[in-house]
Design brief:
Inositol_monophosphatase-like; magnesium; EC 3.1.3.25; Fructose-1,6-Bisphosphatase, Chain A, domain 1; globular; Inositol_monoP_metal-BS; hydrolase; binds D-MYO-inositol-1-phosphate
Amino acid sequence: MDTHLWSDAAVEHPDPTVLEDLAVAVAAETAALALEVRERVVGRDRLDTKSSATDVVTEGDTACEALVRERLAAARPDDLVLGEEGGTSGTPAPGQVRWVVDPIDGTVNYTHGLPWFSVSLGAEVDGQVVAGAVVEPVSGRVWRAARGHGAHRDGEPLRVSSLEDLSLAVVGTGLGYDPGRRSRQAAVLARIAARIGDVRRTGCASLDLCAVAAGWLDGFYEHGLHPWDHAAGGLIAQEAGAVVRLPGADPDGLGEAATVVAAPALAGPLTALLVAEGAGGIG
Ligand code: IPD
């Protein structure tokens, strides 16, 4: 058998900067649609729900995901898409691009008139995110990264915080939709609150990760994020110099559901504090 046909060298990998440009273009167009539809969504009393009574899905989420799928199919018909609302249509082959899409991250903020929500698109190849964009419809900020090419906000290079003292760190976190998990998360947060500088919960994980990339937050952690919540933001933070620990394995006792993203000097101490205060039991 001619084995070279089966080696990695035979698979042509796409240029991450080309995928990054496409992610930005599609996310920016979708952000405009999200704003348009928001007029009809904010303040509505009854919204459809998914995993729990507070996990809402709106006309904005479905319309935005449909637009993303349409634009990606037109530009790159051979790629796969994993979307928060529409799921996935297959298993990627070696070298095949899979887009990981959150059409509106921060849906609860979106329905409440709060400005912190985003359109988030990550492009994954062989299980690794290689490009991504997070666009904020209200502010117009564009966060972007391509693996090996750095992370940028509106053209400016991003760099994480250089803080070394965890007791001064401003740490973001998130709380899940399941009430049981949420109360375990809150209990851990109550225990670590006195050991760090301050806490933020914005309600939009992709923007929390971008905030770490910008050094606005010194670190972030949450249990239960989905791939679409962290695909683009995780790469943006990593390219800005953050240490990124994603769900899927449990190398440190925090559990398979944990995400921890922090400035290099803080990642170890933050992880150790979370383990010591029982975050491994959040589930
Ligand atoms: C949610 C937000 C929130 C985080 C939740 C996510 P969604 O995403 O990112 O900040 O705490 O875990 O599910 O549902 O608004 O796309």
